[in-house]
Predict the 3D structure of the following.
Amino acid sequence: MPDSSRRNFLLAGLAVPAAASAARPSADGQQHPAAARPVFTSPRLGYRILGETGLKVTSVGFGCMITSDASVIERAADIGITYFDTARVYQSGNNERMVGAALKGKRHSITLSSKSGGKTKEAALADLDTSLRELGTDHLDIWYLHAKTKPADVTDDLIEAQQIAKKAGKIRFAGVSTHSGQKDLIPALTANPHIDVILTAYNFSMGQTLDPVIAAAHEAGKGIVAMKVMAGGFRTVKPGNRIYDTLKKDGALLSALRWVLKSSDIDTTVPSMTDMDQLEENLKAMTGGFSKSDEELLARQLERIAPLYCRMCGECDGACAKGLPVADLLRYLTYADGYGQFSLGRERFLELPAEVAQVRCEECSACTVNCPHGVRVSERLARAQELFA
Amino acid sequence: MKVLLAGAAAAALCAAQVPRCDLVPGWTQQGAARAYDASNLFEYMDGNSEGYLLYGFAGMHGVTCVHGGDSILIDISEFADADSAYGMFSANRDPRLPAEALGAGGQVTPRRVIFTKDRFYAELAANPEKDHTPALRAFSAAIEKLLPGSNAVPAALAWFPVEGQKSVRLIPESVLGLRVLQRGYAAEYEFGKAFVVLEPSAEGAAAVMAKLRARFGLEQTSQPAPLLVTDRYLGRLCFMQKGRYIAGWANVAEGHDPADLAAALAARLP
């Protein structure tokens, strides 16, 4: 739900050149002001309401995890990004300190979240106090229990910690972040009246699996924040990685962000950003909707990665009639095919029990494993056996 | 030693070099040893693995040791090179606390020790809440001996003046938040931020200078010349090329000259 606000109008004034006043030395050794030119045009910002929290946030937020220079965060806030996310554990606390310094003086106009991986009420509350101190604020808008993978991880003890923090005015809303196991975890969080916001890994390769549980959570009033929106469904895709480079070259990263934003069940996103260029690229996602060309681009990417890469969702556990550890075998193959580490893949394969290592998929008339993500399991397992056995 | 095979071991440490609980008398191993590589680190530390991958993480070996009611988690990560391991250390050390003469650099607090040696980065975390310094120091000293390689600090650290320095660290990508400055070191001072960007060649550095000129709307020059600009977020700054390096200062406070500072920094480069 894009919103043309007064803020957008005002932001035009902020879209000044990065070099507000540039100077260059000339032959006479004097400094001459260089002609300023616009290097960035502020986009039209889109806002959404974060579930029943009522918080109004930009649909593209800022994941501060790997940002190393405060200037990028500062600029994002000036441009109008209103949601910033960090965690106690990022860079052992240095990240929170940098985020706090960058957003100093802007606290009232932004939504700020952090996370604790504390396993007990006491540890989590101690983390919260440290987070507040390092961020230079007296409260967090959202405080997440960090990286939970199953309902049992969200203990009564930790929920109590969030309730204590709420009553003390140290947090406004309670959340849980999750990178895996969402199919079981999100419904449990949806049913939990104490959880206000869910921060989940979500991208174009996961839609079919996660859409129903996310929609139900949103319908129940939970705020939904998406992360890992550009992972291409492959957890280790990073700059320098072959797949990441392909995604980037094709412009698919922006398409991937737009794909997430087209869902009305996603309230905001927190893509990681390390530089001004990335910030500008991501902001473009708010200016245009998900187009036919985005769809085609992602379909090509999905076609490229889907048959090959296991997302380790666990759906295939115990599904092989011959007892093969399917996800493990696919991972060994990824060592060889994805990372060029054939010897590592083979080493792992040879550690399998003999009766498992001797299984050949070609001996089965039909495969009992059906990957919900479209990985061509029998074909990939046969390749692993051919390569490693 | 029992090893958790779910995490594939990619690190190059040989069996004798992986951390063990018997390095300190009285401590015993709890559970299986851990081993992870870049493809599955998230299984161990979901939510924070990107912070490792950013520095070229190659693998990790870990073990949990117990003694009475105390436990210490020991994790040794291997990175692509010593610079990257030091980068991981410098990103995670608290610049407000003193450094410890441990490996190429270390830091000791009552419940945590981190240090780096060669291409390895060690983390030790103790539970429960109390002062575990003696045990942490004992394990750290033993692990430092165990790890192969040199205790030499990255040569880049010597480029930055020590006086007034608050911190110095490797920036693995986008120095100053500018993508064109791909990788380099940055040091914080009371009056500004010094940086050195590392390019593979002088030609590469010249190309980066040209891109900077374009970014800041300056005319291109045929001769190498310092680039002086004032930016809304980076303040008064100066970029200067020396061979394959680009040295400079940003956010320079009044009373200091960015060009003079950059020239002095460039003079310290090889």
